[in-house]
Design a protein that fits this description.
Elements (H helix, E strand, L loop, with lengths): L23 H4 L2 H24 L2 H12 L26 H12 L12 E5 L3 E7 L16 H14 L6 E6 L13 H17 L8 E6 L18 E7 L7 H12 L2 H14 L1
Parallel strand pairs: 3-4
Antiparallel strand pairs: 1-2, 2-5, 3-5
Length: 279
């Protein structure tokens, strides 16, 4: 074996080759983009197929929404964009209406100080909205038939929402049991009626349709909110009742309606009078 003499030409040549890591990162995500496109196309296909099989009302609602997403309008599709849009209330769906009105009234300035004096309840007559007075007269000054600026602003917002509904509206005025004044020509009867009529005029000037108002009533102190305290300030109030589109029938009424259909013509004319007397 030959010995190296130490010259540069006799040294062995060493070549170092570095092996690169896997190539997966180069093209590993391309399939994800293709898969996302495929899923999107399938979703669009299923939506189109669903719309083709939907009834005409749903198709109209979807069309109306895409034509004008912000509303307003009477179709369901245009009623979904927050406050200020029309809300059609079918039959006895008053819970949804109560929530809508509460949201609208929240836009009234200083409503936090008023919310304890605005009560919204669902009754057999419909949705009852009551503006309950304070000793200082927050909605109507004591003895005055014209709303205060605060009361007027609240009634304006309320009229704007109710004017978009197909439901009829009743407006009631109530007072406490304190005698109005020494002048016998003007009493709590006139005051309660005048307040209800003032509320009607103001609401009709701000969105409530003329044909919506079914009745304007003045009850004086005949329907006290707190009979145990006839002089309480909250007995003085304005009530706005949104009536049902179709009055809900009780079990007895449903039975009475079914009975005449099975009976003869003589029973048809007599049965409603009998039911009314018993009620």
């Amino acid at each position: 074996m030959a010995e190296s003499d130490g010259s540069p030409t006799s040294r062995p040549i060493i070549v170092i080759r570095k092996r690169k890591a896997g190539h997966g990162g180069h093209h590993g995500g391309a399939w994800k983009v293709a898969y996302a496109d495929f899923v999107t196309a399938m979703m669009a296909l299923f939506i189109v197929l669903w719309l083709m099989g939907a009834d005409s009302e749903v198709q109209k609602a979807v069309t109306a929404y895409f034509n004008n997403p912000s509303g307003p309008g009477k179709l369901t599709g245009t009623a979904a964009a927050g406050l200020g849009n029309a809300l059609e209330v079918p039959k006895d769906d008053m819970k949804r209406l109560a929530e809508k009105i509460q949201q609208a009234l929240m836009t009234v300035p200083n409503f936090r100080n008023l919310k304890d004096h605005v009560e919204i309840t669902i009754t057999s007559d419909g949705l009852r909205i009551e503006l309950l007075e304070t000793e200082a007269g927050i909605f109507f000054a004591s003895g005055k038939p014209v709303p205060t600026p605060t009361g007027g602003e609240l009634l304006e917002h309320l009229a704007g929402e109710l004017g978009k509904l197909p439901n009829n509206v009743l407006i009631e005025g109530h007072t406490d049991a304190k005698p109005f004044a020494s002048d016998d020509s003007y009493s709590n009867w006139e005051l309660s009626t005048d307040r209800a009529n003032s509320a009607r005029k103001l609401m009709q000037a701000n969105g409530l349709r003329r044909e919506q108002v079914a009745q304007v009533r003045g009850y004086a102190d005949r329907q006290l909110r707190h009979p145990e305290d006839p002089a309480a300030a909250s007995n003085r109030r304005i009530s706005v009742i949104v009536q049902y589109l179709t009055p809900p029938a009780g079990p007895g009424e449903a039975a009475n309606r079914a009975a005449p259909e099975k009976a003869g013509s003589t029973e048809k004319t007599g049965e409603p009078e009998k039911a009314k007397t018993e009620k």
